[in-house]
Amino acid sequence: MLQGLSPNKRFALNVLLPAVYFVPLAVAYFSPKHFGFGISRLMELGLGLGALGVILWIVSTVNLGRSLAVLPGADRLVRRGIYKYLRHPMYLGITLTLFGLLLACGSTFGMIYLLAVVLPLNFVRIRMEEKALAEKFGETYRAYRKATFF
Predict the structure, then answer these.
(1) Hey, where are the domains in the chain?
(2) Are 98 and 119 in contact (CB under 8 A)?
(3) Separation between Cα atoms, residue 133 and residue 76, nearest integer Å
(4) What is the rounded distance in angstroms from the CA atom of residue 50 to the CA atom of residue 48?
(5) What is the pLDDT of residues 64-88, one digit of tens each?
(6) Under 8 Å between Cβ of 144 and 77
């Protein structure tokens, strides 16, 4: 699916896909705040989940090293660090970060955007990545998939 893309289209996707994650944060930042939707415990929970998400996001990025890419495809199968236990910790980290920060800000738009845009995009990307990895690494990837969660 992505093999036939021109270099310009690949570059555009490499820029636009990550930008999708920042839209709800920008809107939440510039919109009037309703912290924790008026419930201080929700704001505290949101900040905690957001911090956990950022940590997971950073750890997964470090563990990926040179294998980090926006578009699906891989030159090697990463099975160290957090990837020993989770196949998609970066998507989980991104989702937790956004959910936590949007919850802390009390952003209704952000929550809707997360459910309507970010989560479906992440699931499409996961399916594309898993297909590419299964095609490239075959039984080695299938065994890794059985041994890990999400």
Answers:
(1) 23-66+77-147
(2) no
(3) 9
(4) 5
(5) 887 777 666 667 888 899 999 999 9
(6) yes
- Measure the CA–CA gap between 148 and 129, rounded to whole angstroms: 15
Is residue 28 a contact partner of residue 101, using CB atoms and an 8 Å limit?
yes
In sequence order, which residues have a C-beta less than 8 Å from that of residue 28 and are 6 or more positions away? 101, 102, 105, 107, 109, 110
Tokens of 65: 């090293």
- Measured over the CA atoms of residue 59, residue 82, residue 48 and residue 14, the dihedral's sign is positive
Alpha carbon distance 30, 46 (integer Å): 18
Report the alpha-carbon distance of residue 133 to residue 48 in Å, rounded: 33
| 5 three-state secondary structure | coil
Rounded to two decimals, the pTM is 0.85
